[in-house]
Amino acid sequence: xxxAAFLNAVILDYPLENAVSMADxxxxxxxxxxxxxxxxxVYVSKARRYIQENDYRRGFVLSQxxxxxxxxxxxERFYSDILSYMLxxxxxxxxxxxxxALFAYWxxxxxxxxxxxxxxxxxxxxxGKYYFDRKKDYHRAAEAFxxxxxxxxxxxxxxxxxxxxxGWGMSMxxxxxxxxAQELYHQALNIHRKEGNGEMEIWIxxxxxxNAKESGDVHMGILHLVDALERALDLPMTARLENICKGIKExxxxxxxxxxxx
Length: 262
What we know:
Elements: H1 2-10, H2 16-32, H3 36-52, H4 56-72, H5 79-93, H6 96-109, H7 117-135, H8 138-154, H9 158-174, H10 178-195, H11 198-214, H12 218-232, H13 239-261
Helix pairs in contact: 1-3, 2-3, 3-4, 3-5, 4-5, 5-6, 5-7, 7-8, 7-9, 8-9, 9-10, 9-11, 10-11, 11-12, 11-13, 12-13
C-alpha cells in the first residue's frame, strides 16, 4: 500500500515510460500477493497518467479495471474518483448512450451522491462537460457547472472554483448571455491571479476575447487576444502555454480576417 501511495504521488512527474514500468511492476507484485487494494490504486494512478497524456482510450480501460476491483472489494470511497476518470475519458471516446449509462451507474453505486459535496462536485462538473461537448445543451451545462462551483465553494477549493466558473462562463457565451459570461470569466481570472497560475490567466483572457467576439465586438475581441499574448511573454514558456498561445494566434488570425471581409 505504501508503494502504491508513493506511486500515486509521483507518477504525474515521471517520464511516461518510467511511470508505466513502475506501475506494471507494482500491479504484478500486488496481483501475485493477492493485494487487491494496492492493485486497484495502481490502476488508478496509471489511468491518471494516460489521461494526462490525453490517451483517453487507455485511461478508460485502466479506470474500468480499477472500478472492477473496487466493486469486488467494496472499496466504496474510491468509486466516485474512479468513475470521474472513466467519464472524463468516455465523454471523449464513447457514444452518448454509454456515457449516460455511466452517469446512471455512478448514481446507482453512490445513492447518497446528492448529499455529499465531495462527490457531487465532480459529478456535476462532468455533467456540465457532457452537456457542453456532447449534447450542445448550454443552459443545462451552465446549471451543472454552477452546481459544481457551489460544491467547490463550500470546500473552499479555489482553483476548482475557477475551473467551474470557466465552464459556466463558456456555457453562457454559447447561450448568448455575454454579460453574465464576462462576469464569470473575471471571477475565475481573479482566483487564478491570486493563486499565481499564469497559464490559466492567459487561457481565461483568451475566453474573454472569444466572448467579446461572439457578442459582436470583434475589435474588442482582438484587443483581448493581443493583450493575452503580450502577458504570456512574461511567463516561462511551457508546452502547455505554447499550445494556449497557438490557439490564441489562430483565433486572432480568424478575427482579423473577419474584419477584412466585412
